[in-house]
Amino acid sequence: MVPESLDSLRKVFERNPLRIDEAREAGQKVVGHYCLYSPMEMAVAAGAIPVSLCGTRHDSVSRAEEVLPRTLCPLIKSSFGFALLNSCHYLASSDLVVADTTCDGKKKMYELLGRMKEMHILQLPQNQDPETAGPYWEDQFERLRGKMRQKFQVPMTDEDLRRAIKLLNEERRALKNLYDLSKNPRPPYTGLELLEIGFKTSFLPSKKEAVEYLEALYQDGLEMIEEGRSPVAGGAMRLILTGVPLGMGSHKVLKLAEDLGAVVVVSDNCTGYKKTALFMDEEAPPLAEMAARYLKLPCAVMSPNPGRYERLRELAGEFKADGVIDLVWQGCQPFATEAYSVRDFVQKELGLPYLMLETDYSESDLAPLTLRLEAFLSR
Amino acid sequence: MFIAALDVGSVATKAILWAGREAGMVASSLVPSAWRPRAAAREALKRLRAARPDIRPGLLALTGYGRRLLGDEPTAEDDFGLGQIRSLSFNEISALARGLNLAAPELRLILDVGGQDSKALAIDENGRLLDFMLNDKCAAGAGAFIDGLCQSFDLDHQGFDALAGRGRPVPLSSMCAVFAQTELVAQIAKGVSRADLAAGIMASLAARLKAQCGRIFTQSPVALTGGLSRLPVFVDYLAKSLGVPVIVPPQAPYLAALGAALMAWEQDSPPIDRQF
């Protein structure tokens, strides 16, 4: 049985596009974001609604392929297809789109997207050296603040930023509490439910509201644990899902793994647990603190990317994982290449079974994916 | 108890009658799947019955991509001619691992080149999977690649293999089943012989498989199964490419069916029986 809080989140999400419209009519602005490196604190400090725009559905891919190379990753194609079809309410509602030069495919796509939407591009450094990349990245944030001040005619003082940091910290804390429930031997939520929750709360017009939902979900989860109720069968193989981000519509691998009897106890990706790593010092100078935290995000676009391995080690221990699935979108060179080292690390250092799955958003490879997952889970 | 096992592959459907660890396989049959898995399964079982009319299996073990099409419900008389029989279904990767372990317990590495995929498996002394890798979302590096080319050469697999044995491999770059045709046309236009082209195709397929499996194959030797294991010239090219001995185990086409039969037997027997 689904807890009441999840049910009510689902209901409010159905009406969410309408609620975004109402907020806009009342004068609020909407700022769209793609990768996790683009700081949502800025939008919040500007009094705007931050939303994530990464495409998670297959239906816009073929339209995008009329413009983009077919070999690009499905996330980029899906995102761009939404723009061409004008079929994403959140993109259409965005008064400004903030994105960063994460990977080659994305940054070239943004050039094309810039013909249709007003964009501000952050030049993301390719390594995480605090001495060289840190100040550069902070300057990028300062320029973004300048852009938003001018665009939205708001002061965006350091105090505004601090308030935004506090609010987003609350959201991170609530998310982490919820995700950490899966450390329990019988998690109260499946990995798919947690994906859905993270996805749906991220589009709500108010972060305060998102925090309330997350806290209610956490309470319901606690109650389920106390009462010994769980949607997860005892003895289910506990998986870490690492690699590329996913959302509702691009969740097939997660769903398949859980349909086959495993449970994804933690999603080590930008749409999962990685968000909780951005927790910030609320007293520090805000811009520098933000730049430092965001730069540390362990994405495969960073070279080198040592944080990914440290994190996997921590998660494997904390969540008592039995195996690691590394999800790679077809055409994602950074994650596909890094998979070699991740495999070595997981098998040799963590001593856990590892399975890399490369796929796209389509349903065409469900049978071969099932075959691989069944064999992997049967060990 | 006798167990009938069916491995419904994309190209061939394999069936065996199995009489336990000691007696092993007592009959086998292999028929083309021809995109009609149910009909192929029926035909393969019919041949088993013809070979051993005296034996009535008590359990049906299913594996291969077509196992789902055959369903989990007890199989009806008119379908498979086995009477009401219970069926158990197994993943073909695990089945192959167990089957090889039973047939050739000393081998730990398997390369299975089937119609639609190629699998590299590393197993332990009990036939349990340690690691595996499958080709990605296309048929390059699988039997379908050779299938298409056999048609272009107007040869069957054995004929194509023999032709390759008479040639010196020309370097080919494309492993895409579609683009390879284009590249071959260009080579023919340059006057390259059919034998050299066929040899080039075998060599490039072997190189592709090495690239795919190199990480799993850290020791030797490697057992080769699947349809391409029946092509001796290809086996030579593969051994050269991998740099290790390649062994085609006995009963190579039937190993997944054998593994499925073994797992069905284990699942069906109370643990105490298994000691004997």
Task: Describe the structure in your own words.
The complex is a heterodimer of chains A (379) and B (276). With 379 residues, chain A is an alpha/beta fold. Chain A has a domain at 26-158: 3-Layer(aba) Sandwich (Rossmann fold). Chain A has helices at residues 4-14, 16-25, 40-45, 61-64, 74-85, 89-93, 104-113, 133-152, 158-180, 191-201, 207-226, 252-259, 286-295, 307-318, 333-349, 366-377; strands at residues 30-33, 49-52, 96-100, 119-122, 238-243, 263-268, 323-329, 354-359. In chain A, β1, α3 and β2 (49-52) form a beta-alpha-beta unit. In chain A, α8 (133-152) crosses α13 (286-295) and α9 packs parallel to α11. Chain A is globular, with a radius of gyration of 20 Å. With 276 residues, chain B is of the alpha/beta class. Chain B has 2 domains: 3-92 and 254-275, ATPase, nucleotide binding domain (Nucleotidyltransferase, domain 5, 2-Layer Sandwich), CATH 3.30.420; 105-248, ATPase, nucleotide binding domain (Nucleotidyltransferase, domain 5). Chain B has helices at residues 20-23, 37-51, 77-80, 92-103, 143-153, 157-165, 179-189, 194-213, 232-242, 255-268; strands at 3-8, 12-18, 25-32, 59-63, 86-89, 109-113, 118-123, 129-134, 222-225, 246-247. In chain B, the strands form 2 sheets. Chain B has a 5-stranded mixed sheet with strand order 3-2-1-4-5, sandwiched between helices. Chain B is globular. The A-B interface holds A 330, 343, 347, 353-354, 358-360, 364-365, 367-368, 371-372, 374-376, 378-379 and B 65, 91-94, 117, 128-129, 131-132, 134, 136-137, 215.
